[in-house]
Each structure stands twice: as C-alpha cells, then as structure tokens.
Specification:
The chain is of the alpha/beta class. It has 13 helices and 12 strands. The chain has helices at about 10-15, 50-65, 80-90, 110-115, 130-140, 145-160, 180-190, 220-235, 250-255, 260-265, 290-300, 320-325, 330-335; strands at about 20-25, 65-70, 95-100, 120-125, 170, 175, 195-200, 240-245, 275-280, 285-290, 300, 320. The strands form 3 sheets. The protein has a 7-stranded mixed sheet with strand order 5-4-3-2-1-9-10. Helix 2 runs parallel beside helix 3 (about 80-90), helix 4 (about 110-115) packs across helix 6 and helix 7 (about 180-190) runs parallel beside helix 8. The radius of gyration is 19 Å and the shape is globular. The two termini are about 30 Å apart.
Length: about 325
Amino acid sequence: MAKGEGKGHNILKDKINMQHVEINIGKICNSKCLFCYDATLAPKNKKWISREEVEKELNYFFKKGFRSVDFVGGEPSIYPHIIEVIKKAKELGYRRIVIATNGKRFSDFSFAKKVIEAGLNRVTVSVHSSKKEVEDYLTTIPGSFEQKIKGIQNLIYFKNKNFFKYGLSLNPLIHRKNYQNLENLVIYFKKLGIDNFRFNFLRPEGKAYKNKKISVSFSEIKPYILRLINFNERVAKVWLNFGGVPFCMYPKIVIKTSYLFRKYVGELHDLPTEVVTFFIRNLAKTRQSFNWQEKKRNFLKTKLECCENCRFNGICEGIWKSYLETYGSGEFSKK
C-alpha cells in the first residue's frame, strides 16, 4: 500500500501536502498466486466495482483534498474501465496517479501506451523472482514470467521517455524461494533498467497462512537483508527499501546508523494512505474506508511485552498477528 517511493524521492515537497487514497476496484485477477491474501474469497464475491462507483470515489476524495490515487485489486490493469477512470483522475486534477499491477497486461504495448497517455504516472509491479520457474510456480500460471518481463520492458520504454514523474518500482515479496538470493533479483532487473525496489515481507495470510513452504521467518531473512544492504551500498546503488519488517528484526547496523535506518525502513517513505474497498458477500456489497497505517497498528499487527522497552516502540507498527500465529514469539522474546 503506497509502497516504495521513487529514487531519491524527488517529490518530498509534494509528500508534505499530498493525501493518498487507494481504491480497490475489484478482486478479479489473471494470476492465482500461492500467497494470495484474497484467495479465500468465493468466485461469486470477486466482482468489479462499476465505473460510476469508482468515479464517485475519485470525486469524493478529490473534494477532500486528496491529490494522489492508487488503483489496486485483484489485478486493476484488467479492469474493463481502467483507462477511463485514470483519465477521470487526471481530469479532476490528481497529480499522482498510480496502478499496482502484476505487469502482465502491460506486455501489450498498445495497452501500455493508452493507459499511460490517459494519465498514469507511477507503476508498481509485483514480480517475485528473477527465475522463470520460480515466478511461474508462485503465480501457478505458465508463462507468467515471460509476460511480466515483456510488460516491464514496455514500462521501462515509457520510463526512459520520462512518462513516470513519480517512478516505476518493483515490489517483490520476500518468500521461501527467494530470500537467500535477493541480490540476484536486483542484478537481473537493474540490467533491464529498473532502479527502484521495495522488498515486502510476505505476511502469512490467505493461502500463505501457516504455510512455511511459502513464508519465511524474520530470523531467517535477517542475515540476507544485511547482505542485500551491503551489496546495494557497495555495488548496485539503487533505491531500495523493505516493508513489513519490525524494527528489531533489521540488522543491528541498520538500527544504529541513522542514514541506513532512514534509507532502508520502507514505512518511513510511505504516504499516509486511506483505503476504499468493497466487500461482497452473497451478492450484498459493503463499502469500507479506513486508514491503512491505523488498520495495521490496531488490527493486523500487535506488540509484545518486550516491545514496551524498545526505543522504537512509538514509531514501529509491530508484528503481523498472522506471523505470530505461524511462527510464534520466541525470536522476539530473546531481544
């Protein structure tokens, strides 16, 4: 959610006053990922929101002063009216117009051109490996990797034409199949032309709930986070940070070095985010709106007794509840 700002983040002045909203336009997707958070929804509950409803939300939040909007799903690029609602956002005056996508539909150059010309000026792409066999395994759709690479190449073409004022970012999840070679992913995609990465911790929810074949523990990833940071500082030198990791689970050098702390802790770069989503149960639709940071702190995450004495207790969001249900609290009680 509002994940990973652009390299060096040239729009820091914008962030001071720019309010951000994510509009979930439906749970329909063209992948069936093994870690999907929405996989428990019955097919009848996976519906698109109408164009009229999306435009109503755009009008509502614009009048409240919001100038940044992110269309999320499901897979928003396959939404039948995606070009129209992006164009509407631009016409209203939204300055930052984002889509969070798996990138596959952007393999169609004509589609990519149309949606970007409509006003899209930031794209975050979910790709979770630099290996075809791993990406196709995770998405369970043969050919996903090749489609994503083609889509990313098309997006890089427009990035190089300066269409993405607010950046083009990759948002890989850290999972069982990639956590030991994260730098290989950076090397591969940097060669393609990507210089912006947000590595998000895969919280064990949905299909990944209590599934240790897909998820990985903080203690396991900690040395590899350090290795990736060292690699980035010495070699890659890209804009890179991490999301969903409690502060105490970062390597000590990150916690003790203010430069590294500010650079690599992803939540410090995120825009405060309002989320609008529609839940469909037995064909009855309910609109929900909430602040994403508050929902994480108050409902999705928790803190332990050992957190009370942590100097970061006031700003750290805590630990995913589903993580504690999967891995327990032992690694934290040792802190």
